Each structure stands twice: as C-alpha cells, then as structure tokens.
Amino acid sequence: MKDLTFEQKRSLSRHEAADQLTALADALREGGDAELDLGPGTLGLRIPEDLHSELEVEIGGGEIELEIELKWKTAPVQATPSRTEPHAEKPKRKNTRTPAGRSRSAKKSTAKTA
C-alpha cells in the first residue's frame, strides 16, 4: 500500500514541459526540501543526495513515450524514546463498608414475567 499517490495528466506546450523539467532539475540540484509548482497546487518533497533513476522509451502505435522515474527512500520515522519514570504508586482505596447481606457488585433484578 502506498502512503501517498499523486498523478497529474495534462497537455503541455514544449516550453511548459521544459519549465516543469527545469523546476524539477533545480529542486534536484539544491536537494533538501523542495517545492514544485504543479499548476493548481504545490508539491513539497524532501530530496536526499542519492537517488535511483530509470529511463524508459517506448515507440509504437504512432507515439513516443518517454518516462523518467526517480526513486528514493523516505526518511525513517524515529520512535520517540520512552521515558523511564519511576512507577507512581496507585492511591489506596478507602475501605467502605456495605450493609450486611448486600454486596457492592450485586444487581437488582428488574426482569418482568409475562
């Protein structure tokens, strides 16, 4: 299961595609926290030093498909160290007496017969 999936499909001019790739290249060059303007919104990413890349080109059916895929590990979530505080002693319960013949846990029967 994926933690997050974002996909955007739209038509671009050659210049718009170049601008989008340039923004991605700038974010990759700087590394760290990057923000990419994706038209209706902004995508924030943390980009590490080392990446895995795949480049795929498919030609067929009168089209050329170029896929550039970049992968990297997400930063591991570090557990907050548990605090080892001395166990507090539970307060003692007062001994309250009940009338003879009655138990605290006894319930009255309210069932009716037809």
UniProtKB/TrEMBL annotation:
Coiled coil: none annotated. Residues 104-114 have a biased composition (Basic residues). Residues 4-75 form the Amphi-Trp domain. This is Amphi-Trp domain-containing protein. Pfam families: Amphi-Trp. InterPro entries: Amphi-Trp_dom. Residues 74-114 are annotated as: Disordered.
